[in-house]
Amino acid sequence: MIDQWFKKDIESIYNKHQIVVFVDESQKAKFLLDTLDESIEVHEVSNEIEELYVKYLIEKNRADGKKYLIYTSREKSDLKFIREYCETNGVVEIKYLQNYIKEKLHITLNLNLNMTEDELISAAQVSVSKDASYWISLSSGVGEIFDMEKELLPFLHDPKSYTDKYDNHLKTQFYKKINEHLNQDYIEKPAETLAQEVLKAMFDGLASGSIDKTFEHVYIAWLDSRECKDSFDKYLKNYTLSQDLDIWAVSPSHPFVSVDHAWLKEIGLDLNDKDVMVRRLSKINQRRENRQAKSMGIIFWNDVKELVEFDEKDINQLSSMAECIEFYTKHLYSVDQSMRRLYTEFIENRTILEPYQEYYKNIIMIFLDKWFKYFDEYEQNQTGTLDRLIKSNTQKTAIIVGDGVTYEAAQNVVALVPSEFKLSNNVILVDTPSETENNMSQIYISTAEVEPTLHKREQFFADEHNDKDIGFVYLDKVTEDTQHQYLVCQYKDIDELGDKMNNKALKYFPEAEKYFAQKIEMLLSNGYKKVYLITDHGFVLTGHLSESDKVVANFSGQVKKAERYIRTVEKQNVDRAMFIEKEQPYGEYNWLYFSTTMSPFKTVGAYGFSHGGLSPQELITPFLCWETEKEDVNNLSASITNKSDLASVMGNLYSIKIKADSPKNDLFSQERKVYLLFFAQGKQISKSDIITLTSGSRATKEYSFDGYEEIEVQLLDITSKEQLDKVVIKKDNARDLGGLL
Fold it and tell me: Which among 629, 661, 676 is the end of a domain?
C-alpha cells in the first residue's frame, strides 16, 4: 500500500508540474522507484556533476511534456543544480522511512503500529500492491509481515531465484522469519541451505506426526502444485527417514511410500488377529481418506480395507447355487477387485503381497466349499447368446464380445460409462471348460458345436441370420461411421495379454476397462440404441505359487493337462472332494476333470493368469446392456427413391435420388442433415459429403462403382447416426456389353 501513498504524493505535483525531486536520505525508500509508472523518466544523482548533467538533459527535452523524477540521497540543503526544481516544481522528502510510514498509516487508516524500524520497513515493502486489509490485519495481530504459507512454496521450489527479487534488507527479514519457524537463531547462509533446513524440518515433522502448522500448509499446497512437483520429488528422493522411526506415529498425510509399505507388512502379520485389526483399521481409514495420499497415487488402502473388513461368516448362510451366484455378484466380486489391484501394485514385492494373498485365498476357499457343494445345480445359459440378442432386439444394437472379461472387471467398466445411459447389469453362466474355443463357440453357434476359428463362427451366425444387416468388426476398428443394424465387435486384449504375460499383464487391464467404456459411450452416441458387453469366460489370478500349491493329478491312460482342467480318454477313479468330473467328448477324449480349488494343475509353463476351471471368477460373466433413451425429435423423413433402378445398373456410374418429407409441420422437422456410407465386400469404402434436406426437397448424387460389382449404400442422419434407408446397388455387366453375352 506504500506504493499508493507515494504515487499520490508525486501525482499531486505532476498535476501542475513536470518534475518531481525525490529525496531519500536513508536510501531505504529506493524500492519505491520500482513501483513507478513506465511513462515517468527516472534519473539518479549522487553529486553535483550528475546534478548538472541531469538538469541539462531535462531542460533539453522537457518541451516534450514528459514526466521526470530525480532521485537522490543527498540532503535537500546540499543540492545545487536541481535545488530550484524542489522550489519551482515539487519535492517528496523522506528523511526517515519509518516516520513516513507511521504518518501515512495514521492519516489514511488511523492506525498506530507497535513495530521495530526493521519490521515497519519490511512490512511497507511487502505492502506494495496490497490494500488496507494488509495493515489492518497486522495491527490486529491476525496477520504477519510475510504470508509464509504463500511465500515459502516458491522459495523452496527455487530458493535463490525467488529471494533475488528482494533487496538485502527485505531478504534478511524474510530469512529471520523462516528461522523463527525453525526455532533457531538467524545466521547468514545461502538460500539453498536454508531451504534444505526447512525441508528437513517439514519431513521430520511429518515423520514424527508433529509438524509446524505453517510447514504443513506449505506441504499440502506443494502436493497440489503442478508447477512445483519436480522440486518436491527431488527433495523427497534425497530425504532419509530415521532408522528408529515409530511408523505408527507418522502423520496420515506423509509422502513416504516406504512407510506405507512398512504399515502393510505389519498389518499383513496380524490379518487373522481381529483385535489388532480393529486398532489398525483406524490408521487404514485415515490414510485411505487422506487427500495428500490420493494426490500421490496411494490408493491401495481402499483395497486393503475391502479385504480385511470382508465378513466371511455370511458365506455360511448360503444354501443353493442360486444364492452362491447372488452372493458373488453382490459381495464377493469386490474382494476379487481389490485383490487384483493389490496384485497389480505389489506383484514384484512378495514380502508385502503374500500375507494378503493367503488371506484372500482363505476367503475364497470358504466360499468354494459352498460353491462346489451345490455345483450339481449349476446350469450354463451361454449357448446361442448372440442368436437370442438378435431375435430380441429390433432397435439398432451393438454387441461387444470380450475375451476373458471377469464380472469384477466389468463392474469397473460400469463405473466408467456415463450414468446418463440406462444400465441392465446381469450375468451369463458360461459353459465348461471355460476356455476361448469352447465358450466363443457357445456365444456364436446356437447348436453348441465347437468351432475353433472366429471366421467360421461368424459365418455360421451370419448364415443363420442372412436376412439381417449384421456387421462383424474388431472393436479397435470401430469408428463413428461403423453403422449396421446389428454390430458384433470382438475384443481380445485381456485374454491375449493374460495368456502371454501372466502376472505382468495386470498393469494393462485398467486401460482395457477404460477402452471398453470409451467405445460403449461412442456407440451409444452414434446411433446405437443398445450396446451389450458379454464375454466368453473370466479368469483367476493365482499370484505367487509354491510347488505345494499346485494340484497333482496322477491319472492313468491318455491324458491332456491344461492349467485348470484335464481331459482323459478313460474314466478316472478320483476323490470327489478334490475333483469334479464331467463326461464331455472332445476329439479322442471323453472325460473332463476340474479341481475344486483355485490352484492350477501342475503343468509345464508360467502361472498367474488362468481359466478353464469351475471357479465363479471363471464361470460368472457379465451380461451388461446400456441403452440410450434419447429420442430423435426430427420427424423429417428421408428415403432413397430409385431403388428399383439401382438393382441393375449399366455402366460405371449410378445416381442415388433422395427425397425428404415431413408428416408434421413442426420446428424440428424443417431440415435434416444426412450423409451416405458405402460398403463393399463387408467393408466401408467411402463416405459422402453432408447433404442438407428440407421438407419436400429432393437431392440427386452421382457416384462410380470404382471397380466393385456390388455396393451397399446406407443413408444416415448426421447427428443421431440413425439409419434412415439403405439400398444394394448391382452393376449389370451383361447390359454393359450390349447383350452380347
Answer: 629
